[in-house]
Amino acid sequence: MSDAHNPNIKARETPQWGLLQREMFWAPNEGRHPPLNTSPDKLKKLAEERLSEAGWLYSSCNAGQSWTHYANRMAFYRHQIIPRTLVDTNSRDTVTTLFGQRMSAPVGFAPIGINRIYHPTGELSPAKVAAELNIPYCLSSAGSYSIEETAKANGNGPRYFQLYWSPDDKVATSMLERAHKAGYSACILTTDTWQLGWRHDDVAMGNYAFYHEHGAGDLGLNDPAFLQRVKEAGLDPAKNPKEVGAKWIDENIWHGHARTWDELPGLIKQWKRISGGKPFCIKGIQNVADARKAVEMGVDGIIVSNHAGRQVDGAIGSLDALEKVVKAVGDKTVIMFDSGVRGAADIFKALALGAKFVFVGRLWVWALGAAGEEGVRHVMKSLLAEFDILMNVSGYASIDAIDREAIDSLPRGTYFPANPDLT
Prior knowledge:
By secondary structure, the chain is of the alpha/beta class. The chain has a single domain, classed as TIM Barrel (Alpha-Beta Barrel), CATH 3.20.20.70. It contains 17 helices and twelve strands. The chain has helices spanning 8-11, 19-26, 40-50, 53-60, 67-78, 124-133, 147-154, 169-181, 200-204, 217-221, 224-232, 241-253, 264-275, 288-296, 318-329, 344-352, 362-394, and strands spanning 79-81, 96-98, 101-103, 107-109, 137-140, 159-163, 187-190, 280-285, 301-304, 334-337, 357-360, 407-409. An eight-stranded parallel β-sheet has the order 4-11-10-9-8-7-6-5. A two-stranded antiparallel sheet has the order 1-12. It is globular. The two termini are 29 Å apart. The relative contact order is 0.18. Belongs to the FMN-dependent alpha-hydroxy acid dehydrogenase family. Its cofactor is FMN. Keywords: Flavoprotein, FMN, Oxidoreductase.
């Protein structure tokens, strides 16, 4: 809405995000302009121009020939919104609840590692913006700033810790203990990345920051269990930064040692003991049998994700997987979603297919690389504004109103009418 005095503003639990549009339309009268264009294509192009070659390739590359990335975007095209009209959206709100916490919208920051390759402020900027917007920030255990520093930047904001499950139980436990102590309210175990998928450009130029300029980052170098391993190996972080970085990433993060369902109950029990019973979730579910197994194991939530097409080439689109997972276990656990989200319509469609929450990745990473903290803030506020406006113009007044009846679905095999080089 454009009326800055609309009564709905005072009735909402959340800000009237859509008023950002009015603000931006008026801004030229005051000589103000946004830090960047939020069109995904233009944002992607700007990030490519401003990032280093290494930073750009790492942020944009996918596994193999990018077919899974293409499948993600194709799936969003296949499912199409059915607008309603003459609906009272004057009283709409984007507020929702996740694990007992009230959030400003069903949107959060997906965990993405080594943010210093995009901007010197790294994880601190998105963590700070997430708190300002009251949406969850998820810190990757492959992050470049420490668990504690990132928590401080996030302040009282909702935050989760994403765990890459180290084969070294002492290091894994140490990270969980640090996360709980620093106020992270859920553990998100990623299960699709025991090692990185084959990404042609990164391999071709040896683009692996942990072996080069960033090493173990503050997250690893502040971990007492890992530092003990470094000492035992006779390494000095100051004198042997690349070797220490390799030890961190090779032995604790993307180590190549597959963990199994048989081991999962022990990890869940460990987190529950450490945290006093806070939620434990699995990220990376695409298969219905795996979803059922996760529920059987007692997880509190599932994030349906194919790692944005960066792990398994030629895989099912994550949105298509979401439909099946929701049908199988949607009434038994909290179903969340990520992979391929580029705008408000994508968020809407994931919610309509049964996700309770949607995590966004590359949009904020490209914004961080293109314009730092200001870029992240503008892109995420704009995404919330776009979603607020979409609810208004499509005739849906609340998150609960967005259900399976809100979309129509074209047959499988319907192709996105564009070239494969999709944003």
